[in-house]
Amino acid sequence: MNTFVSSKYVALLQQHQLDSFSALWGYQGEWFELPNRERGGWSGVNYIELRDDAGQTHGFYLKRQQGHMRKTWRHPIVGEPTFVREYQILQYLKNYPVATPELVFFAANKDHAILMTKALTGFVSVDHFLKTATHLTLKSKRRLMQSLAGIVRQLHDARVQHRSLYAKHLFVRVLVENGQAPAFDVAMIDFEKSRISCWIFITKLFDLMTLHYRTDDLTCTHRLYFFKEYFKVNQWTFFYKQLFNYMRLRAK
Predict the structure, then answer these.
(1) CB 92 within 8 A of CB 196
(2) CATH code at position 192
(3) For 206, how many CA atoms within 13 A lie in the half-sphere containing its CB?
(4) Which residues contact 210 (CB under 8 A, 6 or more apart)?
(5) What is the pTM of this model?
(6) What is the pLDDT of residue 79?
(7) Model pLDDT for residues 96-149, shown as the tens digit of each residue
(8) Looking at the structure, do residues 8 and 84 belong to the same domain, yes or no?
(9) Which of 92, 118, 144 is the last residue of a domain?
(10) 128 and 246 part of one domain
(11) Are 198 and 80 members of one domain?
């Protein structure tokens, strides 16, 4: 069995008798996301709060799956659980400035897998934020676009194609407010379909088209600002105009 336990949280897990595959697999609690029972198996998410000896409460997301497999060159027939890929990408991105959930526990046993991460405290998904933050000024939205473009560019600089880059997989936290123009911290989740690509200069366009298509609460002006921030261009040249129009048309 392939197992990882964070040294930072192993004592806390032991304290609550949740430091093994069998203990976490048998955890009984309310579902944060009801199990998805498609593709010949199931996958679900629980939110867990654990209190340490100092009385501090820590939030975690516990993801469990059975039978959700993907074929690889190492496992071309039976395949392996999709959480294996997410675990590998999260470990890989530790070496890059891409904010992701902190790994706490991972284990895979045949067609069963567990992935536990630290909750992104204070963050909300970008799609939820855009629907509820109606007070944002033009300057604030531009700052948000700058932050979003920055993390997507950092992901692609690490040669990782997300392959499911929807606004619900980008999380944002307001850092500064109280009468001032807010600054934003951004993180990224859900890497089950991701892959490290040698052709990232091409495959990144598919991520951008997916995000463009799935983000309904942005005006064309904000999309253009995101695009210019992502590519770090000040002058709107013929090439970038054509590229943006191509992605816009393909995303429809």
Answers:
(1) yes
(2) 1.10.510.10
(3) 12
(4) 164, 165, 166, 251
(5) 0.92
(6) 67
(7) 999 999 999 999 998 999 999 999 999 999 999 988 887 788 888 899 999 999
(8) yes
(9) 118
(10) yes
(11) no
